[in-house]
């Protein structure tokens, strides 16, 4: 029982992070039908930028949480600018190109950003200093750290904020209108290019925070961290129904929990034949099963209707 | 009367088909101006060029005394032109109220900062947008369905909603593309009253319509397109007797 509860807690933490990143994928897909494969790299750059700020701040004697806040405060605008530039340079010129062109470009942007990060930060793994409160609390035999609680609360608050932005504000209405039909939204005076830029900028801000969370949670950051994380988050978005915000959130949390449970039990299930390094198998297996029975994802009805 | 919209030598071809050939026309402030012609005459193409959905091959527009930039739809909207569609183009997964509220986009300003801070200015602006949107739903007579998704509305109500959404933009020129298509006699009658009301409120209306009775009864002036060319432009009584128009509609046998 305690393994179960423990893995649920771990999965919830991991899932909150997946959800934040998945939102970036799903927003861009919803508005322009593009899978932005470079999004994982924005997470990575966010984490490494934050780390570059956090280390000297901590060395200067600033209390841990404040140093981390300082890092996030720099990483968010950097990631937003990066997201803006990616769209402006790599995708906008291809706005009317066949769908495959921006997709290949996205992969190219991803490689360029990884290499750029490798040149700036090197190939080494950077340890994320243990600056956040690591107090361990016990719940029914399972342990949860303050950091995990903070991650879940912050991620939850950001998701609620995003839902409010999209559903009850003028900009959110313009975003939804553009997602349904950019030309008609244009005839209402909505500048589709501005809305698309805005979407990239918001998604990148979420990605930067997610990057810091990953680095703090695992205590490590490196130039290659965005690839698998991006792939998982994309999986989460597809699982929930890509294009659907609530779906990305649900998909992220579910994927995190499935993965953690898988990692916790796979050794027992296979008599020690497979270890927890096979956890990814569970995540992708679940994705395949869901897609067989619900090709549009768990909450993806609207997408299938539109298609 | 002042000229509101002037089109000069508009050309548009698709491959080898010349959809619009040197079309020039003038719409005066405050009139209801009809655009008619047989199927495939280029009426909707003219609308699409005017509203920036198609790039013109030649020619240009001036609107309200200024050259009109038709490079992108949102520029046309900003200049003060709103339109509806022959085949309805609502935001199907948004509510009727939200559709109209999108139409207020240009008449409101709240940006990212307002959206995040939710300050008093943003909240009162949002309330004003919603108030105006509800008024417009009342005006076109579908306020009861304010919170229904657009795709769940009946056909006639969807047409009214498109008009409400266009009116929300407070345009100088309202372009209606076959608003009576698929409507029964009662609905057409209500539509006619609606359009007359708009004229009385000082709006200029450009109307594409198949229902000749509606056009002749409603419009101050009418232009007739045939195979992409203008063949007549005058008051309805004269256009109705124009031999070229009769030939276009009934074929060569009469002429």
Describe this entry's structure for a reader.
The complex is a heterodimer of chains A (307) and B (255). Chain A is mostly helical. Chain A has one domain: ABC transporter involved in vitamin B12 uptake, BtuC (Orthogonal Bundle), CATH 1.10.3470. Chain A is 75% helix and 4% strand. Chain A has a two-stranded antiparallel ribbon. Chain A has a two-stranded antiparallel ribbon with strand order 2-3. In chain A, a hairpin with a 2-residue loop joins strand 2 (136-139) and strand 3. Residues 302-307 of chain A have low confidence and may be disordered. Chain B is α/β, with parallel strands linked by helices. Chain B has a 6-stranded mixed beta sheet, sandwiched between helices. A 4-stranded antiparallel beta sheet of chain B has the order 2-1-4-5, covered by helices on one side. In chain B, helix 3 packs across helix 5 (120-140). The radius of gyration of chain B is 19 Å and the shape is globular. Chain B starts with a strand and ends in a 5-residue tail after the last helix. The model of chain B has no long low-confidence stretch (mean pLDDT 88). Chains A and B meet through helix 5, helix 6 and helix 7 of A and helix 2, helix 3, helix 4 and helix 5 of B.
Secondary-structure topology with pairs:
The complex is a heterodimer of chains A (307) and B (255).
Chain A: H1 2-32, H2 39-59, H3 64-91, H4 100-121, E1 126-127, E2 136-139, E3 142-145, H5 146-168, H6 170-180, H7 182-187, H8 192-218, E4 220-221, H9 225-240, H10 245-269, H11 279-293, H12 301-306
Antiparallel strand pairs in A: 1-4, 2-3
Helix pairs in contact in A: 1-5, 1-8, 1-9, 1-10, 2-3, 2-4, 2-8, 2-9, 3-8, 5-6, 5-8, 6-8, 9-10, 9-11, 10-11
Chain B: E1 3-14, E2 17-28, E3 32-36, H1 43-50, E4 58-63, E5 66-67, H2 73-79, E6 81-83, H3 96-103, H4 112-117, H5 120-140, H6 155-168, E7 173-177, H7 185-200, E8 204-208, H8 212-218, E9 221-226, E10 229-234, H9 236-241, H10 243-250
Parallel strand pairs in B: 3-8, 3-9, 6-7, 7-8
Antiparallel strand pairs in B: 1-2, 1-4, 4-5, 9-10
């Amino acid at each position: 029982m305690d393994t179960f509860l423990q893995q649920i807690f771990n999965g919830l933490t991991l899932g909150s992070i997946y959800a934040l990143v998945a939102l970036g994928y799903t927003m861009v897909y919803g508005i322009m039908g593009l899978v932005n494969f470079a999004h994982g790299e924005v997470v990575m750059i966010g984490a490494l930028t934050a780390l570059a700020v956090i280390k000297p701040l901590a060395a200067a004697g600033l209390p841990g949480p404040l140093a981390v806040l300082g890092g996030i405060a720099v990483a968010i605008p950097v990631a937003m600018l990066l997201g803006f530039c990616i769209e402006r340079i790599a995708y906008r010129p291809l706005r009317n190109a066949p769908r495959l062109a921006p997709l290949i470009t996205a992969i190219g942007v991803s490689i360029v950003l990884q290499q750029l990060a490798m040149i700036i930060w090197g190939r080494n793994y950077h340890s994320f200093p243990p600056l956040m409160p690591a107090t361990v609390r016990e719940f029914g035999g399972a342990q949860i750290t303050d950091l995990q609680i903070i991650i879940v609360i912050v991620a939850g608050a950001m998701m609620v904020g995003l839902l409010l932005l999209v559903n009850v504000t003028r900009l959110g209405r313009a975003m939804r209108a553009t997602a349904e039909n950019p030309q008609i939204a244009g005839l209402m005076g909505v500048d589709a290019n501005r809305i698309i830029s805005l979407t990239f900028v918001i998604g990148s801000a979420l990605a930067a925070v997610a990057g810091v969370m990953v680095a703090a949670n695992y205590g490590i950051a490196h130039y290659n961290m965005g690839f698998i994380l991006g792939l998982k988050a994309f999986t989460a978005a597809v699982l929930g129904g890509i294009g659907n915000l609530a779906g990305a959130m649900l998909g992220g949390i579910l994927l995190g929990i499935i993965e953690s449970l898988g990692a916790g039990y796979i050794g027992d299930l296979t008599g020690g034949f497979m270890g927890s390094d096979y956890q990814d198998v569970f995540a992708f297996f679940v994705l395949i099963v869901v897609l067989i029975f619900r090709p549009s994802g768990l909450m993806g009805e609207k997408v299938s209707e539109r298609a | 009367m002042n000229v509101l919209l002037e089109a000069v030598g508009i050309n548009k071809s698709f491959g080898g088909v010349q959809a619009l050939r040197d079309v020039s026309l003038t719409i005066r402030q405050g009139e209801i101006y009809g655009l008619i012609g047989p199927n495939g005459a280029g009426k909707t193409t003219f609308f699409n060029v005017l509203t920036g959905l198609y790039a013109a091959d030649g020619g240009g527009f001036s609107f309200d005394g200024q050259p009109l930039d038709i490079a992108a739809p949102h520029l046309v909207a900003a200049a003060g032109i709103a339109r509806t569609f022959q085949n309805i183009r609502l935001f199907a997964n948004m509510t009727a109220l939200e559709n109209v509220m999108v139409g207020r986009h240009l008449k409101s300003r709240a940006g990212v900062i307002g959206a995040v801070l939710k300050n008093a200015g943003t909240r009162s602006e949002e309330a004003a947008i919603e108030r105006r949107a509800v008024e417009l739903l009342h005006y076109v007579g579908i306020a009861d369905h304010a919170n229904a998704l657009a795709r769940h509305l009946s056909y006639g109500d969807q047409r009214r909603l498109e008009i409400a959404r266009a009116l929300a933009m407070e345009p100088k020129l309202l372009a209606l593309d076959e608003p009576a298509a698929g409507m029964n006699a009662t609905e057409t009658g209500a539509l006619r009253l609606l359009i007359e009301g708009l004229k009385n409120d000082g709006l200029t209306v450009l109307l594409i319509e198949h229902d000749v009775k509606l056009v002749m009864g409603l419009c101050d002036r009418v232009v007739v397109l045939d195979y992409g060319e203008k063949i007549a432009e005058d008051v309805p009584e004269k256009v109705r007797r124009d031999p070229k128009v009769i030939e276009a509609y009934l074929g060569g046998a009469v002429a």
